[in-house]
Write a structure and sequence with these properties.
By secondary structure, the protein is α/β, with parallel strands linked by helices. The chain folds into two domains: about 10-170 and about 355-370, Rossmann fold (3-Layer(aba) Sandwich), CATH 3.40.50.2000; about 175-350, Glycogen Phosphorylase B (Rossmann fold), CATH 3.40.50.2000. It is about 45% helix and about 15% strand. The strands form two sheets. A seven-stranded parallel β-sheet has the order 3-2-1-4-5-6-7, with helices on both faces. The protein has a six-stranded parallel β-sheet with strand order 10-9-8-11-12-13, with helices on both faces. α1 (about 15-35) packs across α15 (about 355-370). The termini are close together.
């Protein structure tokens, strides 16, 4: 690509960290290659991107767009009116900013922006994180030039000739003995017992926390070490419930900022099945037991999890079975070193460590083709 200094890129989407992190990764990679690129984000008003994107040093404009409520309600009239307002505003943004390319990362803020860009014949790229495509990306797929996906079989949702399997942009994580030693100090682990790392995201996962409480006596009496990220909504009630129990081998935290250290010390990870978490587990080759959230569109976390489970790269426990099975299955697996090793190696085979770079390569190709 002709590396001119005035390339303009617009990135739309958001609503959750699962959309925001890929968007920022793509923006950072573009800036690394072409530091003078002008990047503008477009998100949904009152959603987390309106804070996270400026905190990362980028400009963002909010649209009044909101998600459709999935039941018959008069509130959807307001949602529809806001969509038309957002479409008009998106058209104005495209005309004012005049980008060389538009990138949609999913979430309903993508719809009006990518639609407006496609009408102006601006090259458009979608990035779909999940194994089951989101409704916004499915609607937009016929209007865009390229669709970057992280799973096989996505031609079920998108035109086959537009798909490229790049993987998901994730943090640059590595596994090393140095980081493992640092992690043991960080988490105050003084034994060589197996380490179970339990995570439910920054806000926590009620089912996983409930299963941990149900099996707390088993966890406490076994020769294991536990790192338990409860989420900020649950930390106080969990600490209160455990105040009279001996749980010296269980480290309870609301949030873990050093995920690299937690991954390095862990022998087994318990978590939900968000697309980016699974991409990270594959990147570092960590065995996991996945408890897909049932509270997501189209049950896409189960489909994400099965993409690993079907290749013997993870185990799965259904949400409604977690209280009964999660801890017993975890303790059983921690005692099976060969099984842990096999799960980790199979996960590593599914990794795509160059995902962000590959996506940006495609973006630059489209811009170059436009400028020919």
């Amino acid at each position: 690509m002709n590396k001119k200094n005035n390339i303009k890129v617009i990135i739309s989407g958001g609503g959750t960290g699962g959309h925001i992190f890929p968007a920022l990764s793509i923006a950072d990679e573009i800036k690394k290659r072409l530091p003078k690129t002008d990047i503008l984000f477009v998100g949904a008003e009152d959603r987390m991107e309106m804070e996270r994107i400026p905190a990362a040093g980028y400009k963002i404009i909010g649209l009044p767009v909101k998600g459709l409520i999935r039941k018959v309600t008069f509130r959807n009239i307001k949602v529809i009116l806001d969509f038309f307002k957002s479409r008009r505003k998106a058209k104005e943004i495209i005309e004012d900013f005049n980008p060389d390319i538009a990138i949609g990362v999913g979430g309903y803020a993508s719809a009006p922006l990518i639609n407006a860009a496609s009408v102006k014949k601006i090259p458009c790229v979608l990035q779909e994180q999940n194994s089951y495509a989101g409704i916004t990306n499915k609607m937009l797929s016929k209007k865009v030039d390229r669709i970057c996906v992280a799973y096989d079989g996505m031609e079920r949702f998108f035109p086959k000739n537009k798909i490229i399997n790049t993987g998901n942009p994730v943090r640059n994580l590595i596994i090393s003995q140095k980081l493992k030693d640092e992690g043991k100090k960080y988490f105050k682990i003084e034994t060589d017992y197996p380490v179970l790392f339990v995570m439910g995201g920054s806000l926590g996962a009620r089912t996983i926390n409930s299963a941990m409480l149900a099996g707390i006596n088993e966890l406490a009496k076994n020769k294991i070490e536990v790192i338990w990220q409860t989420g900020k909504y649950y930390i106080d009630s969990i600490k209160k419930e455990l105040k009279n129990l001996e749980t010296s081998n269980i480290r309870i935290m609301d949030f873990i900022s050093r995920m690299d250290l937690a991954y390095n010390v862990s022998d087994l990870v318990i978590g939900r099945a968000g697309a980016l978490s699974l991409s990270e587990l594959c990147l570092i080759g960590k065995p996991s037991i996945l408890v897909p959230s049932p509270n997501v569109a189209e049950d896409h976390q189960t489909k994400n999890a099965l993409s690993l489970v079907n290749k013997d790269a993870a185990r799965i426990i259904k949400d409604f079975e977690a209280n009964e099975k999660l801890i017993s299955e975890s303790l059983k697996l921690l005692g099976q070193k060969d099984a842990l090793r096999e799960l980790g190696l199979n996960a590593l085979k599914l990794a795509k460590p160059n995902a962000t770079a590959t996506i940006v390569d495609e973006i630059f190709k489209l811009i170059a083709d436009k400028n020919v």
